[in-house]
Amino acid sequence: MASPVAVVRDWLNRSPIDGFILAILAAVVVAAFLPARGDAAEVLDWVVKVAIAALFFLYGTRLHPREALDGLKHWRLHATILTFTFVVFPLIGLAMKPLVEPLIGDDLYAGMLFLCLVPSTVQSSIAFTSIARGNVPGAIVSASASNIIGVVLTPLLVVALMSTEGGISVDGGSILEILGQILVPFIVGQLARPWVGPFFARHAKVTKYADRSTIVLVVYVAFSEGVREGIWSMVNAGQLIAVTLISLVLVVVMLMVTRWVPQRLGFSREDVIAIQFCGTKKSLATGLPMATVLFAGSTVGLIVLPLMIFHQIQLILCSWLATRYGREADAATA
Questions:
Q1: Local structure of 282: helix, strand or coil
Q2: What is the mean pLDDT of each run of 10 residues along the chain (334 residues)?
């Protein structure tokens, strides 16, 4: 008879839900019943600040500046992806306000707008582009550039578009925290890359678990704060269902738009795939730490909830779509 551990591992391997997402959901559940309080909460707040700085230092060591610069030769591809990420998404986020805000409330709408402002993912964008037989080098450059630019551009977009939203305030102190916890560690990581990059490359699994553990910790601390402030009295089942449906519609619409527009612009099949998967993704790994820094003092748990839901939906739909594209490509070359 298989051990309980083996049974759980097999179930996780067959589950359509990523183990990382399950860990995040577990952090939410634990925070709901056992939130950090008192001295423990204060200690964890400092631990999170240090962990976020370390996380962006790791991001800096992983992204090769020369690779991004070399890839800029295909400027139309990258410009199109960045336009979807930092122009089309924010415009949709602003345009949905009259329809969405009355359904889900101010804080959850702020979360929907925030998810529209964060950069694209790196690992999953590249992985899905590869599975679908798309332009993998283009995806690597664009997804990396999105994260590099997003370190600066996402906070600026938040300041420009969200400072007037209900309960959201980004002041000089927040900007200094952004510099101290996100931008400075990222730049230091870039500068230290020639010396520490090979070490982290050899220990990729360890660093992967380190950054994922940081995100789970961020979620736990954010939702602990939310529980202390009565987050579950602020959101009901109807709002959760509404956020899920809105996120599903947003993912589907962006998948359609990021395929239709590049085809009309004359991009190759491989480029269209890279644009579709890089241009629709929103990074949970980057967005959650940024939210913790940007919205300190606000209801962070409610603000990051739409991003968490959106992230899981995009993984499921893009996984199915990439597999279908890959089978079509294999059949065409058989």
A1: coil
A2: 55 59 80 86 85 78 63 79 95 94 90 93 77 82 79 86 56 59 78 85 75 77 74 80 95 95 93 93 82 72 85 82 86 75
Q: How is residue 295 written in tokens?
A: 């919205």
Helix H or strand E encompassing 228: helix 204-228
Yes or no: say if 94 and 164 are a contact pair by the CB < 8 Å rule. no
Q: What CA–CA distance (Å, rounded) separates 225 from 155?
A: 22
Output the CA torsion sign for 261, 95, 103, 29. positive
198 contacts 2 by C-beta, under 8 angstroms: no
299 DSSP 8-state letter: -
Residues 172 and 169: their CA atoms lie apart, in Å, by: 10
Decide: 82 and 258 in contact? Cβ < 8 Å: no
Q: Output the six-digit token pair for 94.
A: 């602003």
Residue 260: name the closest of 276, 248, 249, 274 by CA: 276
pTM of the model: 0.73
Kind plus residue range of the DSSP H or E element containing 183: none
3-state secondary structure string across 91-124? HHHHHCHHHHHHHHCHHHHHHHHHHCCCCCCCHH
- Which of 11, 55, 9 is CA-nearest to residue 216? 55
Place of tokens 């080098």: 137
Listed residue (179, 150, 94) closest to 283, CA to CA = 150
